[in-house]
Design a protein that fits this description.
The chain is 44% helix and 20% strand. It has 123 residues and is α/β, with parallel strands linked by helices. It has a single domain, classed as Rossmann fold (3-Layer(aba) Sandwich). The longest helix has 13 residues. The protein is globular, with a radius of gyration of 13 Å.
Length: 123
């Protein structure tokens, strides 16, 4: 299994500042990739096969739920873990029903996000 330093996290979020905040919170322990919309998220995930995807639900191009559905269908054996992050009401239930591994509400607490990422990557 990879050490944390070699784990790759794909941040799928249309807000540049929020992508930077996630990177800052998680620190330099991971390798990061970024996608700004749903189409780019799917393309990058299929090409890079990240260990973890942090996925916003409300993105241009394709919604996070559409992206998640596509990824669960196309990535083998569900090896890529997905954490859905959203400010959308009732998104937690929709995300979990769509196959997310975990849900983080926006705005998020730095310690909570870090703990969830560590937990999901260790599973």
């Amino acid at each position: 299994m990879n050490t944390a330093a070699t784990k790759t996290i794909l941040i799928c979020e249309d807000d540049h500042n929020l992508r930077q905040l996630v990177r800052a919170v998680l620190g330099e322990r991971y390798r990061f990739l970024e996608a700004e919309d749903g189409h780019e998220a799917v393309e990058m995930a299929l090409r890079a096969r990240p260990d973890l995807i942090i996925l916003d639900l409300m993105m241009p191009g394709r919604s996070g739920l559409e992206v998640l559905d596509d990824l669960r269908e196309k990535l083998p054996n569900g090896n890529t873990r997905v954490i859905v992050m959203s400010a959308w009401g009732h998104a937690d239930e929709a995300a979990m029903n769509a196959g997310a591994d975990r849900f983080v509400p926006k705005p998020f607490e730095a310690d909570e996000l870090t703990a969830i990422v560590e937990d999901v990557l260790e599973a």
